[in-house]
Design goal:
Layout: E1 2-7, H1 11-20, E2 28-32, H2 40-43, H3 48-54, E3 61-66, E4 72-76, H4 98-106, H5 114-124, E5 125-127, E6 141-145, H6 151-162, E7 178-181, E8 183-184, E9 186-187, E10 190-191, H7 194-199, E11 208-212, E12 215-221, E13 227-234, E14 237-249, H8 252-262, E15 265-266, H9 268-273, E16 280-281, E17 287-289, E18 293-300, E19 309-310, H10 312-328, E20 338-344, E21 355-360, E22 374-383, E23 390-393, E24 404-406, H11 413-430, H12 433-436, E25 441-442, H13 444-447, H14 452-462, E26 464-465, E27 495-497, H15 512-528
Parallel strand pairs: 1-2, 1-14, 2-11, 5-6, 14-27, 15-16
Antiparallel strand pairs: 3-4, 6-8, 7-20, 9-10, 12-13, 13-14, 17-23, 18-22, 18-25, 18-26, 19-22, 20-21, 21-22, 23-24
Length: 531
């Protein structure tokens, strides 16, 4: 029996467990379906490539067939390990645009405007550049500049400037727009996941109990529909933990709605189809799922053998780099691969940047799961504010079966139009002298797409997620919303959802830092305003 039971040891769950257990009078249990974050592939930043190729520490969920992608199934890799996706992601620290949060506030969620959330971003952060109006020091999450960015990443930034974009040394400062190098969640040449920042240093606390290999199967509801505990399966055995204060659901935008549905909380007709007793008819559960659709331009650069790539030279370099990283935590394996990027507008009339670029120091094909011989580089083109909305539904009543995930990519025609503009603008950047000097050649899949129609076909054939699903347990006061402005589930006392699923609209950037902020914000309400 605990005061709080946290479901999911990912970015939000680690914050909740670490912060709430600071009070020695409070007993906290954290349930994580994956294992401890012990693998060297997690701690070595460059291990990201091997994890992507093997699917290690990953739920590996496939979407339903996507009409907007020509009927293809998309791929949704989500972290299944302590630290969640912060243990397997590309470690980019980005908050998005200030207007994103003002939109949340104006949608009926007081306390979520930019001026409200900035202090919580600063509280979470230890930025190695130091504190200022935008950044904090002394927080659990270490944010740093890359130790050894590749020269090609600096060339990309210079190419962006040559194409007419502003050089931006800090995407989390006064302005989002421009091109530059990303800051990353690194410390001393290692990945600094949210588990490392918030959880691992406190595993010795007697009031904190972390249970790994624990797959939550149902939230237990007691009298008055109050959440009183969690059922889970571990090693084939079904077990239950009780929560005297609150159950905190932090399983992410794909699995949090699934667990609510399995617990009888959600749209009544869907629950009844699967033989699940309706505990609380909440129609918005699993609705409004959306994600950043993304397409990648890939270039061969045979002369750049110091880039990551499949070749005898490349293998020799990586072997030497492994030894350097093991002994000194330095060298080329301290990369996050997506070292540089930018935030740009698809057309001049946009109120804010609506495209994000991630420049990658290798040839990235099919999420890194398809080998591409030789050396080269890639550039993601990501749509920041898609209009398409999808869903998460139950495939069956089996709690161990994956859900049906439908992000409805390119369902709205405007999303495709903006991505096509983005492909054209990105190609223009990549053709500038700073990069053209290397003699790289765009791979035929995209190079042959010249007209808008041909580029639209390329996008449909190759686009997919850039790993930012949100919105499936939307925050707000309306009948389609799932949680209120303090993340309490409407109509279910003692239960909150605290993760990216609560975002009313996706942020204009990577979602990990905002998820940490959401959890930091929630802790204050949990302590002072019980559900």
């Amino acid at each position: 029996m605990y005061d709080y039971v946290v479901i999911g040891g990912g970015s939000a769950g680690c914050v909740l467990a670490g912060r709430l257990s600071e009070d020695p009078a409070v007993r906290v249990c954290l349930l994580e379906a994956g294992k401890a974050d012990a693998s060297a592939l997690i701690h070595c930043p460059g291990g990201l490539a091997a994890m992507a190729a093997t699917g290690a520490h990953n739920w590996r969920i496939d979407t339903t067939p996507q009409p907007g992608l020509g009927g293809r199934r998309g791929y949704q890799p989500r972290g299944k390990v302590l630290g969640g996706s912060s243990s397997v992601n590309a470690m980019i620290y980005a908050r998005g645009h200030a207007g994103d949060y003002d939109h949340w506030r104006d949608a009926g969620n007081p306390g979520w405007g930019w001026s409200d959330v900035l202090p919580w971003f600063r509280r979470a952060e230890h930025n190695e550049r130091g504190a200022d109006d935008w950044h904090g020091t002394g927080g659990p999450l270490n944010v740093a500049d890359l130790l050894a960015p590749h020269r090609i990443s600096r060339d990309f930034v210079e190419a962006g400037v040559q194409a007419g974009y502003a050089r931006n040394p800090d995407f989390n400062g006064a302005q989002l727009e421009g091109v530059g190098l990303y800051q990353v969640t690194h410390k001393g040449g290692e990945r600094h996941s949210v588990a490392k920042g918030y959880l691992t240093p406190h595993l010795g606390r007697p009031n904190l109990h972390v249970i790994t290999g624990a797959h939550a199967t149902r939230i237990v509801l007691g009298e008055g529909r109050r959440a009183t505990g969690v059922e889970y399966v571990q090693g084939g055995q079904r077990r239950t933990v009780q929560a005297t204060r609150e159950v905190l659901l932090s399983a992410g935008a794909l699995l949090s709605p699934q667990l609510l549905l399995l617990s009888g909380i959600g749209p009544g007709p869907q629950l009844q189809r699967h033989g699940i007793a309706v505990q609380h008819d909440l129609p918005g559960v699993g609705r409004h799922l959306h994600d950043h659709p993304d397409v990648v331009l890939v270039f061969d650069a045979p002369a750049l053998t110091d880039l990551f790539g499949l070749s005898a030279t490349g293998a020799w370099r990586v072997l030497r780099a492994m030894q350097e990283w093991r002994s000194r935590r330095s060298g080329m394996l301290t990369t996050n691969f997506a070292e540089a990027g930018g935030f740009i507008r698809s057309q001049p009339g946009e109120a804010a940047p609506d495209l994000q670029l991630h420049f990658v120091t290798g040839k990235l094909v099919n999420h890194g799961r398809t080998a591409s011989w030789g050396h080269g580089y890639s550039c993601h083109v990501c749509l920041l504010q898609p209009k398409s909305r999808g869903s998460v539904c139950l495939a069956s009543s089996d709690p161990l079966a994956p859900p049906l995930v439908d992000p409805a990519f390119l369902d709205d025609a405007d999303d495709l139009v903006r991505l096509v503009r983005g492909v054209r603008l990105t190609r223009h950047i990549l053709q500038q002298p700073a990069l053209a000097q290397h003699g790289a050649r765009e791979l035929p899949a995209s190079a042959q797409a010249r007209s808008d129609g041909e580029m639209a076909q390329f996008v449909r054939q190759h686009a997919d997620t850039i790993y930012h699903p949100v919105g499936s347990c939307r925050m707000g006061p309306g009948p389609q919303d799932v949680v209120d402005a303090q993340l309490r589930v409407h109509g279910v006392p003692g239960l909150r959802v605290v993760d990216a699923s609560i975002m009313p609209r996706i942020v204009s950037g990577n979602t990990n830092a905002p998820t940490v902020m959401i959890a930091e914000r929630a802790v204050d309400w949990i302590r002072h305003r019980p559900a």
